[in-house]
Specification:
With 451 residues, the chain is of the alpha+beta class. It has 7 helices and 23 strands.
């Protein structure tokens, strides 16, 4: 068995040969009429609790105070920042509630929380749940466990609809505390360790098993430090017709159920809301190293070596646009999104706020040119700011080969007039009728993500 230490991490990753064995997966087998992949009794209960909490008078009162706080900040005093404060507070509050729901529970489970686009499913309407630059191509699921206790995660890919990449990432402590963004590095939160499905041993039928805690475990094993540890799985879909992996978490050691008191959950949320919302609201100030208007940072490697990310800050006049040309490199996933001045993503169903490889059109030369603007520039790869003139862009290259570098990923970055966009050499154009078809296809595929 080989053991790999990730940076100065307390977490060790072990990789053993699977030797062609298959993981039993009866618990996750598909029925003739299966439940949605992301559905579970725990998910249903968590969402019902979240909907109750956001209506609590204490939560509403704190949200009102936080809105006033954000209005007095540098971003809040701008036109676009002020226009998006209410949504930012809603998204960040919901994010904290889901963090606490994953932490304070009778037994650990994988909870699907983060998604900035509101979701309607299973008879419920959930509002925006997000913090900073959340990727609409991702499904984020998180659990909080106690270090030293042994757990297993059973996974099952659908070979015909497998997501482009699955990332496992773990961090110390409970997730309901806001990070110190002023001292954070390229990752907003501390990463003990991370790996992708490139490192997983996966059986021919798409099944796998990850063990967490204890010195030894299964083929794919994670050694955790003492105390609470939060870990998550992140499915990245380069096409919204792909599916997230089916996952099931269970304890291997005897664990006494934690007494659950809804009033204690409320106290935890109320006690942490202020710091959490104020802390994450500063991501725009410190994220990507702090960017001046109409600048970018270089494509930066992600912890665990699973890809690159580049941050962009834009500030555009009504007749201006930002044109960015990138190379895909050898990445299996290339995604570009725009977010508001608080780095909260817009409604992916209503506006073209993001484009992945299945949605973007390459230039004649094989590169990809994207145009960010508040007005439709008549090009296929328009990133719609939904009328905003100030905000951020995020480009991600993922599922890259081991040892890949950022050489040549960014080709050009320039401010142009909106009227000039369709005249850029080699760029794909689109008609108003084509745009309408693009939007209709997008909305339909988004709705299908919850199948």
């Amino acid at each position: 068995m080989s053991r790999i230490v990730v940076g100065q991490s307390c977490m060790l990753f072990s990789a053993l040969a699977l030797a062609g064995s298959s993981v039993p997966f009866e618990a996750l087998a598909r029925d003739k009429e299966p439940e949605p992949i992301l559905a579970s009794p725990e998910q249903d209960a968590a969402e019902e609790l979240a909907l109750e909490l956001v209506e609590h008078p204490d939560v509403k009162a704190i949200k009102a105070g936080l809105r006033e706080h954000l209005r007095a900040t540098e971003i809040g005093r701008t036109k676009d920042g002020a226009a998006t404060i209410d949504r930012a507070v809603d998204c960040l509050t919901n994010s904290l509630i889901f963090k606490e729901l994953s932490t304070y529970r009778p037994a650990p489970y994988l909870l699907w929380g983060t998604e900035d686009t509101p979701r309607e499913w299973r008879g419920r309407k959930m509002g925006c749940i997000g913090t900073a630059g959340d990727n609409p191509d991702n499904i984020y699921r998180t659990a909080v466990v106690q270090g030293g206790v042994r757990y297993e995660v059973l996974g099952q890919f659908d070979p015909d609809h497998r997501a482009t990449q699955l990332i496992f990432q773990a961090g110390p402590g409970e997730p309901g505390f806001a990070p110190n963004l002023a001292t954070a590095g390229s990752e907003a939160v501390e990463v003990l360790g991370a790996f992708s499905d490139r490192e997983l041993e996966i059986a021919p039928d798409g099944s796998f098993r990850v063990t967490v805690g204890g010195e030894t475990g299964g083929t794919n094993h994670v050694v955790t430090p003492p105390g609470p540890v939060s870990f998550g799985f992140r499915d990245t879909m380069a096409d919204w017709n792909q599916e997230p992996v089916r996952l099931k978490l269970r304890a291997l050691d005897p664990v006494e159920p934690t007494p659950f008191d809804p009033e204690e959950l409320r106290r935890r949320v109320v006690g942490r809301m202020g710091d959490y919302v104020r802390g994450w609201s500063e991501y725009a100030k410190y994220g990507f190293g702090g960017l001046a208007p109409n600048t970018h940072n270089p494509p930066t490697g992600r912890a665990g070596g699973w890809g690159f990310v580049m941050g962009i800050r834009f500030s555009l006049a009504e007749d201006e646009a930002l044109a960015v040309t990138v190379s895909r490199g050898d990445a299996k996933y290339l995604g570009f999104q725009v977010v508001d001045p608080w780095t909260i993503a817009g409604d992916a169903r209503k506006n073209i706020t993001s484009l992945n490889l299945a949605q973007a059109t390459p230039d004649r030369g094989g590169t990809y040119t994207y145009v960010i603007s508040p007005k439709d520039p008549g090009v296929a790869n328009w990133l719609d700011t939904a009328g905003l003139h100030d905000g951020f862009g995020i480009v991600r290259w993922q599922a890259t080969r081991a040892g890949a570098t950022n050489d040549g990923l960014l080709r050009s970055f320039r401010i142009i007039k909106v009227a000039e966009a369709a005249k850029l050499p080699g760029i794909a154009k689109i008609t108003p009728k084509g745009r309408q078809a693009q939007l209709e296809k997008r909305a339909g595929e988004w709705a299908n993500r919850l199948r």
